[in-house]
Amino acid sequence: PSPIKSATTILTQPEKSSLKSPSNESFIAKDEQNMPSSEFAYNHKIETIKMYRDTLAKTKDAGLMFDFAVFLLKSGLEIYNNDIKTGKKIIKEGCYYLKKMAMKGNVEAQYLLGDVYSNDTLKCQNLKQSRILFETAAKKSDPQSAYRTALCYEEGIGVSRDSRKSLTFLKFAASRNHTLSMYKLGMFYFK
Questions:
Q1: SS (H, E, C) 99-135
Q2: How many CA atoms lie within 13 A of 147 on its CB side?
Q3: What is the pLDDT along the chain (191 residues), one digit of tens a residue?
Q4: Which partner from 15, 29, 63, 130 sits 20 to 30 angstroms from 122, CA to CA?
Q5: How far apart are CA 191 and CA 186, in angstroms?
Q6: What does each C-alpha distance from 26 to 19, 22, 169 come to in angstroms?
Q7: Distance between CA 82 and CA 60 in Å, rounded?
């Protein structure tokens, strides 16, 4: 048996603490047994969001803020399927933190926010802003952002088509060992 207990094992086995119900089961396990799994997951996500907010208010750590933004986006998408209003609110908060970090020059946040804006999955599509964020991150030596910027210029996504700029960004990304850029560049030279 593994020395690390799974979350299910921890939640369903009695705890050795002072928080016991009269039947020797933990309160957490008892609550989980009476609650549908989707409702339990929803409540757990909301509690996690509250804890993240509290911790973030105390520390102002950029890494924590990024992790929180990613968690908000993922949670918002999951919740959106059942509760559109709450899902949109959570997604909007995640985008708020990404914008805050992107404005301070965080390359990961610029790329992720560009990715969020590039598709309508999170219900906030903005192709022009997406291309601007990709290009900003690319200029800070991010090969994935350079590749996405090249695609924007090649296809005219959020900007007018410009094959020279596309080629410039592809070359840059390929020089940083970005595999898709190397392939696309090779195909360009092959033709």
A1: HHHHHCCCHHHHHHHHHHHHCCCCCCCCHHHHHHHHH
A2: 17
A3: 433 333 333 233 333 333 333 333 333 333 444 445 678 888 888 899 999 999 988 988 899 999 999 999 999 888 888 888 988 899 899 999 999 999 999 999 999 999 999 987 766 789 999 999 999 999 999 999 999 999 999 999 999 999 999 999 999 999 999 999 999 999 988 87
A4: 63
A5: 9
A6: 7, 9, 57
A7: 31
Q: Rounded distance, CA 53 to CA 128, Å?
A: 30
Alpha carbons 81 and 163: distance in angstroms, whole number: 39
> The whole model's pTM is what?
0.75
**Strands, E assignment, the chain:** none
Beta-carbon contacts of 121 under 8 Å, excluding residues fewer than 6 positions away, are 77
User: What is the three-class DSSP state of 77?
Assistant: helix
Instruction: State the virtual CA torsion across 42, 47, 53, 55 in degrees, nearest 10.
Output: -140
- CA angle (123, 83, 57) in 5-degree steps: 75
* CA distance readout (Å), 54 to 41, 45, 64, 65: 20, 14, 11, 11
Closest CA to 28 of 45, 46, 13, 47: 13
Report in angstroms the alpha-carbon separations of 77 from 45, 57, 62, 65, 140. Answer: 12, 24, 23, 18, 29
